[in-house]
Amino acid sequence: MKEPRPKAAARREASAPAKSGAREVHAPKPVDAATRTEIFRRLHALNPEPRSDLEYTDAYTLLVAVVLSAQATDAGVNKATRRLFAVAADPAAMVALGEEAVREHIKTIGLFRAKAKNVVALSRILVERHGGQVPASREALEALPGVGRKTAAVVVNIAFGEPTIAVDTHIFRVAHRIPLAIAKTADAMEAALTPIVPDAFRRHAHHWLILHGRYVCKARKPECPRCPISDLCRYPEKTAKAPSPVTGDSGSGRSRSARAG
Ligand code: SF4
C-alpha cells in the first residue's frame, strides 16, 4: 500500500498542466476498480482498435517515428518520415543513406541533429547485432541510441502486442485529473497504472488515454461537456458548456461545483 500523498502535492499535480491561473482545489481520491473498468469499457466502445497518430509500416519505421517524436508533434514527424521512409525504410538502407542525408530529411523537426545521429546509429546496431530486425524486448530496445523507457514501451506495445503503458504528458495529466492514480513521475505513474488497469483493457490503455488527453481532456481547457467519462471523472475543475449567446448563462466556462470548490 502506498503512502498517501501530501494534499498540497496532489493538488499541484492535478492542476499541473494549467501554467497560469492555478487555484487551490480539493484533490479527489482515485476512482475505484469498478469505475476504472467502466471508464475503459467506454473508451473501448468508442474506439475498439486505437492507433497511434504516427505513420509507420512495420516495427522499424515505428521505432524510428517514435524516436523522432520526442519534443515534436506527430503531424510534424509524419511530414518528415514520409520523405525519409521513401528513400530508407529499413535499417540497412538508413545506414547507407547516412547521417547527413537523414538530417536533411528531418530538419523540420526539433532536435534533428541528435535524432539523425541516433537513427543512423541505432540502425547500424540493428544490422550488426539483431539481423536487421527490431528486438521485441524493452531491455534490448533501451540499449539502442535515442531509445528511452517510454519509446521502448510504445514500440513493444504497438509492434509486439505487449500490454505496456508508456506514460507521456497526456497520460500523466489525464490519470491525475480523473484520477486513476497519483504519482510524482512518469515512471511512478506507469508503475501505479500497470497493475490497476483491468487486464482486458491494458493492451490499448495507453492509446486510449493519450488520444483522450490529446483530443478531449486537453491541457489548457479540457472539453468536459463532450467527455464520455465526465460523470465518472472527479476533476474538481471540469469545464462547463459555452455560454448561450442569447442569455449569457454559464459564462465562466467552469462548472458550478468547481466554482463552489
Ligand atoms: S470530465 Fe473533463 S477533466 Fe474529466 S476526463 Fe473528461 S475532459 Fe478530462
What does this structure look like?
It contains 13 helices and no strands. The protein is an all-alpha fold. It has 2 domains: 102 residues, Endonuclease III, domain 1 (Orthogonal Bundle), CATH 1.10.340.30; 99 residues, Helix-hairpin-Helix base-excision DNA repair enzymes (C-terminal) (Endonuclease Iii, domain 2, Orthogonal Bundle). The protein binds iron/sulfur cluster. The site of iron/sulfur cluster (SF4) has 13 residues, from loops.
Structural key phrases:
261 residues, mainly alpha, Endonuclease III, domain 1, Endonuclease Iii, domain 2, 13 helices, disordered N terminus, binds iron/sulfur cluster
Summarize the model shown.
By secondary structure, the protein is mainly α. Helix content is 51%, strand content 0%.
In CATH, the topology of the largest domain is named Endonuclease III, domain 1
Mean pLDDT: 87
From the structure provided, what is the oligomeric state, counting identical versus distinct chains? Answer: single chain
The domain tally reads 2
In terms of topology, how is this protein built?
Layout: H1 7-14, H2 33-46, H3 59-68, H4 74-87, H5 91-97, H6 99-105, H7 112-129, H8 138-142, H9 149-160, H10 169-177, H11 186-193, H12 199-215, H13 256-260
The structure holds iron/sulfur cluster.
